[in-house]
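Worked example 3 (structure in, sequence out).
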């Protein structure tokens, strides 16, 4: 993001993912570099969210050799969740190269928050075996990862 001697570019002017959170990230990277802590920007796991009701969100690749989709209607629910979620057509889809998560997309309440886990997994190149071993809080929306990873594993075994 260095544009010249003592000149840096961040945000939409870079032409890289014109999203507010990317501009904030780039600002953090530039500030670290200016302060003598060299950092590089990485864009393999940029979360994208549309704040509609329900939210639509994605991160990472949009296609992969393996994918699994789980509907939100199969999620365990707490009494505090709206009953409308039980009848929702929302879902979580995970994408994989067979070893790691490479992408995810979701439709549902707080889908942008769901994808935080996928964003970290893609950025850190977390193996699928490790993701399958993560303990999810129960009953919460993150429990959808248990079912999605189970479905992905079944696809990997049969593929």
């Amino acid at each position: 993001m260095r544009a010249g001697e003592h000149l840096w570019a961040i945000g939409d002017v870079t032409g890289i993912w014109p999203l507010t959170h990317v501009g904030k990230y780039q600002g953090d990277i530039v500030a670290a570099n200016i302060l003598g802590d060299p950092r590089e920007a990485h864009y393999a796991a940029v979360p994208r969210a549309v704040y509609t009701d329900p939210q639509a969100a994605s991160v990472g690749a949009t296609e992969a050799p393996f994918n699994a989709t789980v509907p939100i209607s199969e999620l365990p629910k707490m009494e505090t969740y709206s009953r409308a979620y039980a009848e929702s057509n929302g879902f979580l889809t995970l994408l994989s190269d067979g070893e790691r998560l490479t992408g995810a997309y979701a439709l549902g309440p707080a889908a942008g928050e769901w994808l935080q886990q996928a964003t970290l997994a893609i950025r850190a190149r977390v193996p699928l075996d490790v993701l399958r071993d993560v303990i999810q809080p129960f009953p919460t929306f993150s429990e959808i990862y248990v079912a999605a990873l189970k479905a992905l594993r079944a696809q990997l075994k049969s593929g």
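Notes: The chain has a mean pLDDT of 89. The first strand starts at residue 2 and ends at 4.
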